[in-house]
Amino acid sequence: MPRTDRIHPTGEDTDDSNSNSTDTGTGTGTGTGTDTGKKAAFLRSGHRSRSLAAGFLLPALLLLGALVVYPIGYSVQRSLFDRSGSSFVGLDNYLALVTDDSLRTAARNNVIWLIVAPAVATALGLVFAVLTERVRWGTAFKLVVFMPMAISMLASGIIFRLVYEQDPDRGVANAVWVGVHDTFAESSVFPRARPLPVHPLEAAGGGAFVTEEPVRAGEPVPLPLIGVAPGNMPKEARPARAPDAAPDAITGTAWLDFTRGGGGRPNTVDPAELGLAGLRIEAVKDGRVVAETTAAADGTFTLPADRADGAVLRLPASNFREQYNGVEWLGPTLVTPAVIGAYVWMWAGFAMVLIGAGLAAVPRELLEAARVDGANEWQVFRRITVPLLAPVLAVVLVTLMINVLKIFDLVFVIAPGSAQDDANVLALQLYRSSFGTDADLGVGSAIAVLLLLLVVPVMVLNIRRLRREARR
């Protein structure tokens, strides 16, 4: 390549290649210095950013350590010591969780809670969310279902303690149950009523009573009873009246042979005594009921002589059965399902709202395409809706599982003292072991650590699921 020369102002020849080489070297040196400065500035700004972030996070980290990390560490340490905290006992407190009957009951009930409560609440939330999607009043219905979430656990426990009262006059659940029962089953009129030994009646077995002698037309039949409190007499009851003799009928009077305040004569209708209104009376011949009637408000009754003459009169046992008082919701058998019912009442609305939000994001074209292809609503729900809602259902289910592992308030308030051992759960046992009359902080700390160990796997599964969804 030909050499190119030019005349320098000083009169010296200058080689262009050397000049270019010098310029390039100078430029490279300047660029390197600039890059180094930028890197230093970037590092300084990154250091300031990390320091700023650490300054903002420090209060939260201090609170986390004081309120979470330290209590967990102290609970683990305390669970290894005895009741007084002075002697190291190792794993003895954890072995007590297996050997103690009340602790085993609490663990068993926690398993029942973990399986039943989240599943039922999630299922009801799914049903409510799907069914209210197409109705005009769906928003109002969702508001009503979600409203219990605004009530505290303590208030809900007080409400359901009243709902589950054994007395049908106070407990809503038993009032409804007794009403349905009495609709299909005949209720007794005079429970515990009975005759005195001097009365002309005798026991016939099975709770019934019969006359000692067959009855005859024209001879009035007295049927006196005792054992009914005057205040429990039917409202329609009137003062008893002795019947008139009728030659073509069997007549008589059934009355409460008791005079308020004392006095009166047995087997005689006194003016202050009331008739047994509504008492069932049967005429029985050769083991068959040939006629039957019901006592009037004043206790009088009449049976046709052509059928009842020569029969014995029977007062069937249905007159004297104990009144049905409903179900013992808070008894040893049903107390745990009853408390779970209160929990579901509170948290079904939470599940419904979350599932409803997920349902709003389901592509409608998929549902319509399935219907066009001939799928019925159940198939659309089972094959399309539920699979698409699976992530939301998992969130709701895991959240409720974590929540029921900590359940305490409802069990403590709803379960009466006589049934609290049967309704016991780990969180309640933790309270009883730590602060009860026979407090043992070592066992209480062991229960707290056990609850933590039960919650951690569920939280780990939930975090992994959230990460998987974030990577999609």
UniProtKB/TrEMBL annotation:
- Kindly give the membrane topology term recorded for this protein: Multi-pass membrane protein
Q: Write down the PANTHER family for this protein, in alphabetical order.
A: BLL4140 PROTEIN (PTHR43227), DIACETYLCHITOBIOSE UPTAKE SYSTEM PERMEASE PROTEIN DASB (PTHR43227:SF8)
Region Disordered: which residues?
A: 1-37
Q: Report whether Membrane shows up as a keyword of the record.
A: yes
Family annotation (CDD domains): TM_PBP2 (cd06261)
Q: What is this protein called?
A: Sugar ABC transporter permease
All copies of domain ABC transmembrane type-1, residue ranges: 107-462
Q: From which organism does this entry originate?
A: Streptomyces zaomyceticus
Composition-biased stretches (Basic and acidic residues): 1-11
Superkingdom is Bacteria
Please give the start and end residues of each transmembrane region.
Answer: 52-73, 111-131, 143-164, 342-363, 384-405, 441-463
Which family does the entry's similarity section mention?
Belongs to the binding-protein-dependent transport system permease family.
Keywords on this record? Cell membrane, Membrane, Transmembrane, Transmembrane helix, Transport
For this protein, the record's InterPro entries field holds: MetI-like, MetI-like_sf, UgpAE/MalFG_permease
Identify the taxonomic lineage of the organism of origin. Bacteria, Bacillati, Actinomycetota, Actinomycetes, Kitasatosporales
The primary location reported for this protein is membrane
Where found in the cell?
Cell membrane
